[in-house]
UniProtKB/TrEMBL annotation:
It comes from the Bacteria. Gene3D superfamilies: Tetratricopeptide repeat domain. This is Ancillary SecYEG translocon subunit. It is found in: Cell membrane. PANTHER family: ANCILLARY SECYEG TRANSLOCON SUBUNIT, UPF0070 PROTEIN YFGM. SUPFAM superfamilies: TPR-like (SSF48452). The lineage of its organism: Bacteria, Pseudomonadati, Pseudomonadota, Gammaproteobacteria, Alteromonadales. Belongs to the YfgM family. Its main location: membrane. It comes from Bowmanella pacifica. The chain crosses the membrane at residues 24-42. Keywords: Cell membrane, Chaperone, Membrane, Transmembrane, Transmembrane helix.
């Protein structure tokens, strides 16, 4: 299995998997149900609907990359397709765009939506990690810690602990920061950036 080393690579991999295999997964469920009952329950309209949703999502993404109107169109798409998996991915892309505009409040709104809607733990974890970073930008440190606490998977513990350490430094709680950075290093041995943050804590304390 290919290993993805960054959050963005993981998001792109999930989007590609859904695009390439979404219809096949539904077809597999149909066949598994078996016989006429299965086809009546998951009929052809369901498959066609998925293809249409995928096409609409691609259109929204293209518009989002082009102009201001595309941003508004993507917002409308999320609002009107809130139960759609594509709306979740759109919300994460909207959050990324909002950050580039320094609109951290909008980014937080979209990431909270994505984190709450995500059924795949990895997607929920990525959304909460990004949400925590946005809350740090907003100086809302309790909400940043709450977003980190919501991450239930162990796959991101190094990033979680490092960011938790950053929050504690912002709050002036250097003992907790030291513990968090140490935990991050245990999960990511050889990470020079985390080691530097840990080593620099006494200097931070003297500021």
């Amino acid at each position: 299995m290919e290993v993805y080393t960054t959050e963005e690579q993981q998001v792109e991999a999930i989007k590609k998997f859904w695009k390439d295999n979404g219809t096949a997964i539904i077809l597999g469920a149909v066949i598994g149900l078996g016989g006429l009952w299965g086809w009546r329950y998951y009929n052809e309209q369901r498959i066609v609907g998925m293809d249409e949703a995928s096409a609409q999502y691609q259109q929204v993404m293209q518009a989002l990359e082009n102009d201001e109107q595309g941003f508004s169109q993507a917002l409308e798409y999320v609002n009107t397709h809130s139960d759609d998996n594509y709306a979740l991915l759109t919300a994460m892309q909207l959050a990324s765009q909002a950050v580039t505009r320094d609109d951290f409040s909008e980014a937080a709104k979209q990431l909270k939506f994505a984190a709450d809607k995500a059924k795949v733990p990895a997607i929920a974890a990525i959304a909460n990690l990004r949400l925590a970073r946005v809350h740090v930008q907003l100086a809302d440190y309790p909400q940043a810690l709450a977003a980190l606490d919501a991450i239930g998977t162990d796959n991101f513990q190094s990033q979680v602990q490092e960011l938790r350490g950053d929050v504690f430094v912002k709050q002036g709680n250097l003992d907790k920061a030291r513990a968090a950075y140490s935990a991050a290093l245990e999960n990511s041995a050889g990470n020079n950036l985390i080691k530097m943050k840990l080593d620099n804590l006494p200097a931070v304390a003297s500021v």
